[in-house]
Inverse folding.
């Protein structure tokens, strides 16, 4: 599982923080005395203990989803100090610490604000990092992010995401024309039968990257179905959309895809369908582009897979 392999990168951080928590428990037990059952404030136990558990879960989730780096370190340290403060606060509900022991008060009073400062500083850097990531993902998600609508193979939005984006673009741009290009790999079924589904998946993944490289910043690529991609073009006329579709066809025909095992070059070709209208709803625009694609494919006579060594 990806999360556990990522957590393994941060095992030293986890050992340090949870090791300190265990050391705190042992220290409390050695210098303190257990409270009587009736002395325990269970409302505080639930509140402080629940907060400590939540902080620990947040920390594990962050470490399980991020690589090493300054932002990860700051977020982890911030949450770690806050967790240790709440952990000590919760232990005080069960163990009475002598007044001359100062360290438990320090943990409760100093670790929490210090952790909050580190967490805030980390979030400032996370914000800058997120803006950079947003720029990288612009052609994958535009202004709407929903991980449940992302295709796991190509890491771009699927058909449900496409419809959401078309609705959002219509709301954002009003009556201005929105164009849609449907892109279909010629004879992809033959490619799968000849080279296998794993090679076909690799081709789909690399082709999605190629399409994004050959589009404008405001455009969006989604995987519509199987080997069919959809390219959303905001504020684009039919004429301009046809030009962009032609450019995509030339880019794909020049794409020297390499077979993963043999290294043989497998050149591809695509068919495209274009629809552009300021008044069509999302489903109507998709249907119009699909219809145009099917009409254009009727004229296809040449094969798509060519082998060059």
């Amino acid at each position: 599982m990806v999360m556990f392999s990522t957590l393994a990168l941060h095992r030293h951080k986890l050992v340090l923080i949870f090791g300190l928590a265990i050391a705190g428990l042992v220290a409390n037990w050695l210098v303190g005395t257990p409270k009587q059952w009736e002395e325990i404030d269970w409302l505080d136990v639930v509140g402080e203990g629940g907060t400590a558990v939540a902080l620990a879960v947040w920390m594990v989730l962050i470490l399980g989803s991020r690589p090493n780096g300054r932002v990860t370190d700051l977020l982890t340290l911030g949450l770690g100090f806050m967790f240790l403060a709440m952990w000590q606060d919760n232990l005080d509900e069960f163990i009475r610490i002598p007044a001359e022991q100062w360290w438990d008060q320090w943990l409760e009073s100093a670790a929490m604000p210090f952790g909050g400062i580190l967490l805030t500083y980390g979030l400032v850097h996370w914000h800058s990092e997120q803006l950079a990531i947003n720029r990288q993902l612009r052609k994958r998600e535009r202004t709407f992010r929903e991980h449940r609508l992302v295709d796991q193979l190509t890491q771009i939005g699927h058909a449900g995401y496409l419809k959401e984006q078309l609705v959002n673009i219509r709301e954002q741009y009003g009556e201005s024309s929105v164009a849609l290009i449907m892109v279909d790999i010629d004879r992809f079924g033959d490619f799968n039968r000849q080279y296998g589904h794993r090679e076909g998946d690799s081709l789909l993944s690399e082709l999605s990257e190629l399409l994004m490289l050959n589009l404008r910043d405001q455009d969006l690529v989604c995987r519509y179905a199987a080997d069919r991609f959809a390219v959303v073009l905001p504020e684009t006329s039919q004429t301009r959309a046809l030009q962009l579709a032609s450019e995509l066809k030339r880019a794909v025909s020049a794409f020297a895809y390499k077979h993963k095992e043999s290294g043989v070059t497998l050149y591809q070709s695509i068919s495209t369908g274009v629809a552009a209208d300021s008044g069509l709803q999302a489903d109507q625009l998709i249907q119009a582009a699909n219809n145009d694609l099917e009409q254009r494919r009727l004229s296809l006579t040449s094969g798509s897979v060519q082998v060059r060594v």
